[in-house]
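Why do we bother with holo predictions? Because pocket geometry can differ from the apo form. Keep that in mind while you read this record for pyridoxal-5'-phosphate.
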Amino acid sequence: MVDLKGQYAAIKERVDASIQEVIETTAFINGPEVKAFQEELESYLGVKHVIPCANGTDALQIAMMGLGLKPGDEVITADFTFAATVEVIALLQLTPVLVDVDPVNFNIDIAALEKAITPKTKAIVPVHLFGLAANMDEIMELADRHNLYVIEDNAQGIGSKYTSKDGTKTMTGGIGHVGSTSFFPSKNLGCYGDGGAIFTNDDDLAHTLRGIVNHGMYIRYHHDVVGVNSRLDSIQAAVLRAKLPKLNEYNTARRNAARKYSAAFAGVEQIVTPTGYCNAGNTICDTCDCHVFHQYTLRIINSDRDALVKHLNDNDIPCGVYYPIPLHLQKAYADSRYNEADFKVTNQLVKEVISLPMHTELDDDQIEFITKTVIDFVTK
Ligand SMILES: *Cc1c(COP(=O)(O)O)cnc(C)c1O
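The structure, written out:
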């Protein structure tokens, strides 16, 4: 699905040298590399504060802790996403409220979101799923009207630019009150282990978050709030510093591969290609940067998705089903308040979606082999 070795070859010299330097200086935790990466990411995202942490799941949890959410507060998120989002809501004894997604862009459905808001609702967690910005204008408008926090789960969307109705472009993760990301190796900006970060433009919240990641300490050995231990280590920061200057190039390579896939699939009636919308008014982001294709995900209709998965595996083509089970049907998150009729889209998508190999090193021959194998199978 990803080719991290090919990507490493192009940055090997810098990565090796900076890892070596971390070892020489032994500044393994909170060393200068972490601080430098933090500043470089702030500048890249155009966000005032980046708080590095240990992984993307922690980032979400710390964001919710920093906002002071309390047990019983309702937090709304999408039914069709990775479990980390709902997991931390539940861990903090907040009440997860899952809602359906939009069949076109796979992101949280605005009408369903609005319907789910109650007097107990305190926050919304939009996920920029597969790398496509969620409809932040409408989400922020709803949040303003109902006095809710917005926590952007940007683990799959780093580098994506959201175009507002007024034409302004903002990097995802810096639009809501707080944003989070993951540097898991296969993410668009991945390190060589675990890593994550939290973003905010709010000075007070940033101060709170910096304490929470460090055992609730603002002054050494003075624990003012309950915190956690969640750090980005210096070796990972060194890797990320080598990769951040290439992130736009990486995302362009992903977008180009996505365009080639979609061109090959055009007109095949069993296949729905990703046609996420954005407010620039286009259908597949040819003119804007709202999709960074963390995944290239098709819907297979009137054909057998599971048989296609097997066929691709038999032909040594990696593929993935993200995600095979709606969160509201997972044992850990099932809730008698949920009504199947409210999850029509997610229930359908889990049977139709398939993600094809997507990374920065895909070449034309690979894309041709993959698309031909898929098309031959679904049209036979
Ligand atoms: C990867 C991911 C996370 C979790 O990140 P980790 O670094 O693996 O903890 C959270 N949310 C989404 C949408 C993700 O894709």
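The first helix runs from residue 4 to 25.
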